[in-house]
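Box 3.1 A note on notation
Throughout this textbook, protein chains are presented in two layers. The first layer is the amino acid sequence; the second is a token string describing backbone geometry. Keep the layers aligned when reading.
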Amino acid sequence: MSEPGSLIRALAGRPTARNFHSYVIAEVGIGIASGRFPVGSILPNDAEMMDSYGVSRTVLREALKTLEAKGLVEARAKVGTRVLPKSRWNLFDRQVLAWIFEAGPEPAFLRSLADVREPLEIQAAEAAARHRTAEHVRILHYWLNQLISTAQMPELHAMAEFELHRTLAEASQNPLLRAATGLTEFGVACALSARREAQAGNLATEKHPHYQGLLAAVEAADQPAARAAMAAVLQADRHWMMQGPPDPRPD
């Protein structure tokens, strides 16, 4: 299972698998997400895969069981291991999201992500304003300061942004919002990648005022203001993911 922040850390380069089991899972997972193993196709037989990845039958079988648990494949007797439709994939699984990110998500997927992420995170911001503690506020201010100090360091900046969002989810006191932070991490990583590709420069300038307003609202227990500030943050991310830099504000 991928840990929180692992997808963002991969922005600096694809991480090395910790063992043969992880290696096979990652290689087949990215192969499926990228279409190298198309939906509906049958994976190569055990002998071929053992030879390709240099692993034992036990390691291969355990890796395929893990992929089956994530909804990517299904093993059938006398048929083989079939790649399942995307509708069966566990899209809340951080590792599945990481493979989709590495393969390059399609615009329709990014649009669906934004449509789901926005109401969840707006709800988290509102709930955080209602339930936050002094410790939550202290941590939020720490990550806000990190956003400024890492403005020229993409990976660290993205990690600070993700941790700020994750702290809000923790402060919400809602276990389901906490469990959905994989979508947040994916969204942060995709928006940052688009900004890097466009050579956007200082990474903190655009959203920092919104984050300042968000933290002020959470600290003051102002729920409507927290919702509005989070909506502004997420709208900026949607623009970057879907169509590049946001339009300039009208005079």
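The chain has a mean pLDDT of 91. The chain has two domains: 6-88, 105-243.
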